[in-house]
Design a protein that fits this description.
The complex is a heterodimer of chains A (about 325) and B (about 210). Chain A is of the alpha+beta class. Chain A is built from ten helices and 15 strands. In chain A, the strands form three sheets. Chain A has a seven-stranded antiparallel beta sheet, with helices on both faces. The two termini of chain B are about 30 Å apart. The chains are: A alpha+beta (about 325), B alpha+beta (about 210). Chain A: Its cofactor is Fe cation.
């Protein structure tokens, strides 16, 4: 890997997933076995149905809760394998049962405790949302860990919502496969949340004016606002060139007794879901543009792009994928 | 790349006047490769339509007018394909002239036959005239020059002369209309096909019209 004078990296072969991993059936099949058939994967937050299901890369995961006990299976066509299931606070993770490999706590490190603490805010669930992208799932992961496309892709949504001097205030932690970025909210945005808090008396896991984004390999991230609202996201591979971004808003309030409070909570949640949908609708075209563009340079030797100071999380992800794909069965 | 591969062949893209104004662009796709021809400060140039930063298609529309700037992170490129506008370069990339040159867009071949503009993915290979043959090249050039005025869409009729070459099919009406249809190259979807009717310079002026595919 060559390093430019200070900040940017041009990855060399072997330090970066081959371009073809973004569209070939062969790579998709390899990921199904080595990544989605082996790693701990976020499944959701149980509700009254005591049932969670997910589909990733052709694998179907079915989880049931009976009291405190959880059990589940992974279906791969006719093949049915048992799941290992564990929790991080309210967040439920599962993997195809196997000997060895990391525990869930090891897989989430060093964010397990923080995720568990934030997941205490998984209250007042809103209906899950799924948005289809005509792009490989990794293009969405790259997009979500890209800390500096706000001004170009989200000029009227995210960009004005974060502090004008976001560059000075952005804090990114990288721990190999997992990472975290936090953004200071603009004064106006923080003020909006403060007013909301005054009305809803939100449950807050921290007294912070941040948008926080915690990524857990391979396809989960938890977005939080104002130390209150939590939005778990999962990127589900559907096909080599198709994926679905699934997310669920939790707007935790301690004041939801009167009809007026319930109506206000409902309308606020609807507004936040619509706003999040608008942001995702802005990301979708650029993810799809990458999906269309990447095959167009794949035949050229040495075209590996360049990763700036705020794009290192993406290279971390590529390297984690390479390790996972190379892991012995 | 074999000589028969789409990437080695010339494809008609548009008319020269489609690229006459500053920032005008026309795009297509050949196989897996998106291409763009663009007027940048008066120079008409062609590149792979893929940003060298993180590989997004730069211009997503079949044609339009706007700077050669990637929608993802705002990288903009000059007529040599070199990135000249890099948001956050001082803090995030610190690319000097040589570093920028290494990240230039990959050039595509561009050639004209009269007012007809052709593109090819491969940088090297036979010239457009060699590929079409001198006779046909001269005929197409003459026709394109003789029918400069866009007009209302017409349907070809029996008895019209038809010329087919590359992805191009021309229908020449005895009464002086030239119908030009460019099929989308292999790998491109139908939005990259174009059909235009032209009339001689002295023909009555009619409404400009361009049929969708």
């Amino acid at each position: 890997m060559s390093t430019h004078p200070v900040q940017s990296i041009v990855p060399e072969a072997g330090a970066f997933l081959p371009h073809s991993h973004f569209w070939t059936e062969e790579a998709f099949s390899q990921e199904r076995e080595q990544v989605f058939g082996r790693c701990w994967l976020y499944m959701g937050v149980f509700d009254d149905t005591n049932l969670l299901t997910a589909e990733m890369a052709g694998l179907r995961f079915e989880l049931h809760r009976r009291g405190e006990a959880m059990e589940g299976i992974c279906r791969d066509g006719e093949r049915v394998r048992p799941l290992q299931i564990d929790r991080c606070g309210a967040l439920v993770f599962a993997r195809v049962a196997r000997e060895g490999g990391p525990t869930l706590a090891e897989h989430l490190a060093p964010y397990g405790e923080r995720l568990a603490m934030m997941s205490a805010n998984c209250l007042n669930p809103q209906p899950p949302v799924g948005i289809a992208f005509q792009a490989n799932w990794k293009a969405l992961v790259e997009n979500t860990m890209d800390d500096f496309h706000g001004s170009t892709v989200h000029p009227d949504t995210i960009h004005p919502a974060v502090h004008p001097d976001w560059q000075s205030h952005l804090v990114t932690e990288r721990h190999g496969t997992n990472s975290d970025s936090r953004w200071l909210l603009a004064d106006g945005t923080a003020g909006w949340w403060a007013k909301l808090d005054a009305k809803l008396r939100m449950r807050r896991f921290a007294d912070e004016s941040f948008y926080r984004h915690t990524f857990i390999f391979p396809n989960f991230y938890l977005a939080t606002f104002y130390g209150a609202t939590v939005i778990p996201h999962r990127v589900d591979p559907v096909a080599p060139d198709a994926s679905v971004l699934r997310w669920q808003l939790f707007l935790p309030t301690t004041r939801l007794e009167t009809a007026r409070e319930q109506a206000f909570h409902r309308s606020t949640a609807a507004y936040l879901i619509e706003s999040a949908g608008t942001v995702i609708a802005e990301d979708r075209p650029v993810c799809e543009a990458v999906q269309q563009g990447r095959p167009g340079i794949a035949d050229l030797p040495g075209v590996t792009g360049i990763y700036g100071r705020r794009e290192r999380r993406i290279l971390d992800f590529h390297q984690a994928m390479l390790r996972q794909l190379g892991e012995a069965a | 790349m074999s000589n028969d591969a789409p990437e080695s062949r010339w494809f008609h893209l548009c008319m020269a006047d489609d690229l006459a104004s500053p920032n005008a662009f026309v795009t297509t796709r050949v196989g897996a490769v998106p291409l763009v021809a663009q007027n940048i400060k008066g120079r008409v140039v062609a590149f792979r339509n893929v940003c060298t930063h993180r590989f997004a298609v730069i211009h997503g529309e079949p044609s339009g007018c706007g700077p050669l700037r990637c929608p993802y992170h705002g990288w903009s490129f000059d007529a040599d394909g070199v990135p000249v506008g890099l948001p956050f370069n001082p803090t995030d990339f610190q690319l000097e002239a040589e570093g920028r040159r290494r990240l230039a867009l990959h050039p595509a071949s561009l050639a004209r036959c009269g007012r007809l503009v052709f593109v090819r993915v491969a940088s090297d290979g036979p010239s457009l005239e060699e590929e079409l043959g001198s006779g046909l090249f001269a005929r197409l050039a003459a026709l394109s020059d003789a029918f400069p005025r866009r007009g209302d869409a017409v349907e070809p009729e029996d008895g019209w002369e038809t010329i087919e070459t590359a992805n191009l099919r021309l229908h020449l009406a005895p009464n002086g209309a030239l119908l030009l249809h460019s099929a989308a190259p292999p790998g491109a979807d139908r939005r990259f096909s174009r059909t235009v009717t032209f009339h001689p310079a002295n023909a009555p002026i009619t409404t400009n019209a361009e049929l969708p595919a």
